[in-house]
Design brief:
alpha+beta; Cytochrome Bc1 Complex, Chain A, domain 1; 2 domains; six-stranded mixed sheet; 18 helices; 12 strands; 17% strand
């Protein structure tokens, strides 16, 4: 472990120094195998430590949820862990815990994902557990009801104490509307309450199957043996009975509009400014990540420096660019005390204007390059990270150059190329969708200057008006 850490530090040092030898992170070789049922295996031997990382994705995810049953994919993903094969929920958890393995599921917009980390000697057990949870899940009614209730209570709890976690959900719902990217991935209070076990079983039959499966494995194993093990476990899994959902690109919004979420008595206002951005396959990725790092992606970014460090209006402000298979959202987000709502929002809009007017000088850009190139290698240190990267590339139809040429592209970025990305991706102040959460009675008249206002009470059991 100490040797690995020293090598990582050395790699980062070379990266930041600009030496040609370490300009790029080069992915190791991966063996790609497609089974007869369409399942894809990605196998990378990595023998430095006796560990294996596994990342599995089933394409579909929340975009395949029924319009009135948001959270179905997420609820099913959680239920896959609650008993499978001959094991009850407790026995399933104990099987993984007994060998010190990690095994967890989650759902995103466009996939259900499973990650695992384990000792090489326990590969047979983990493959058995993975096959059970995907091919032979129990889908127990009592476990479903308990999980559903916990999800509903989590949302209710967040409305009292974790509003930051809810703002992206409200934001995407208002920005994208009925488009699938507006779906609350984990559901709402109302949609979760309507989901039945029959709905989960229907989703399972329609949206999970061997033709949707990607399994990426990196670590201490023999490729031929691992291919055989995974083939034996998954080659006969039937296909999903429904076609993979086709998501059309959402249209970028023009003009301003405001969703005001009323939380009576709130002492802080949370705000999010958004528009439709770009997809995962956006060609100018390096320039975009440099821009976003400097604008709102690090502690010393333009947004955080202005709103937190210099003015003390908030404990944090930033920008986020979400890039699924179709254009996602580009966002500015922060929060402030209620009486400073307009001051903070106007300051954020002013910083956006500075970005669009060419505020990034050569010294700032070089600082951003050093930061990005210093951070980038740490995404590829472990077997689990590599497995996740290979699965992501497969899911989005990207090749190894997405990683292998990244360092050169960061190094080649210029003020002119970054300005073109800013103009293409970051909306002007007059083309923003605002979501504002706070005490509506206090701020209603003030925030009306940002556009036509739609109101929604935070007590409503849904995320869009």
């Amino acid at each position: 472990m100490m040797l690995q850490r020293r090598l990582t530090v050395l790699l980062i040092g070379l990266f930041c120094s600009g030496m040609a030898l370490a300009q790029n992170v080069i992915l190791p070789e991966v063996t790609r195998v497609e089974l007869e049922n369409g399942a894809v295996l990605l196998l990378n031997e990595k023998h430095d430590v006796p560990l294996i990382g596994l990342s599995a994705s089933i394409r579909g995810g929340a975009v395949a949820d029924s319009p009135e049953l948001h959270g179905t994919a997420s609820l099913l993903a959680g239920l896959l862990e609650k008993g499978a094969g001959e094991r009850s929920a407790q026995q399933f958890a104990e099987a993984a815990d007994s060998v010190g393995a990690t095994l967890s599921t989650s759902a995103g917009l466009e996939s259900i994902d499973i990650s695992a980390g384990f000792m090489a000697r326990d590969a047979d057990l983990i493959i058995e557990l993975l096959a059970d949870m995907l091919i032979r899940p129990t889908l127990d009614k009592n476990e479903m009801q308990k999980l559903r209730e916990r999800r509903i209570n989590f949302i209710r709890s967040a409305k009292d104490g974790n509003l930051t976690a809810l703002m992206p959900i409200y934001g995407n719902a208002f920005l994208f509307g009925e488009h699938p990217y507006g779906n609350p991935v984990n559901g709402s209070e109302s949609s979760l309450a309507d989901i039945t076990l029959t709905d989960l079983r229907t989703y399972y039959e329609e949206q999970l199957g061997g033709n949707r499966l990607i399994i990426s494995v990196s670590g201490d194993f023999d490729i031929a043996e691992m291919q055989q093990k995974l083939g034996d476990a998954f080659a006969d899994w039937r296909a999903a009975s429904a076609p993979l959902p086709v998501v059309e690109a959402a249209q970028r919004q023009s003009g301003n509009r405001v969703l005001l979420i009323d939380k009576p008595g709130a002492t802080q206002t949370y705000f999010r400014m958004s528009n439709v951005g770009v997809s995962r396959t956006y060609p100018n990725r390096a320039d975009l990540e440099l821009v976003n790092t400097l604008f709102g992606g690090r502690y010393t970014s333009m947004l955080n420096s202005a709103l937190r460090v210099e003015s003390g209006l908030t404990y944090g402000a930033g920008s986020i660019v979400n890039q699924p298979s179709q254009p996602g959202s580009v966002n500015i987000a922060s929060y402030t005390r209620t009486e400073a709502t307009v001051e903070a929002m106007d300051m954020a809009l002013g910083i956006l204007g500075q970005l669009r007017d060419g505020a990034l000088d050569d010294a700032t850009i070089q600082s951003g390059k050093n930061y990005v190139l210093g951070q980038f290698p740490t995404d590829f240190e472990t077997a689990g990270q590599l497995a996740g990267v290979f699965a992501m590339l497969e899911k989005y139809g990207l090749d190894a150059d997405y990683v292998n040429t990244y360092g050169d592209k960061v190094g080649a970025a210029t003020a002119e190329s970054m300005a073109a990305v800013i103009d293409e991706v970051y909306p002007a102040a007059e083309d923003l969708v605002f979501v504002i959460l706070g005490d509506a009675e206090t701020i209603r008249e003030q925030v009306a200057k940002y556009g036509p206002v739609t109101e929604l009470a935070i007590s409503e059991p849904r995320f869009r008006p």
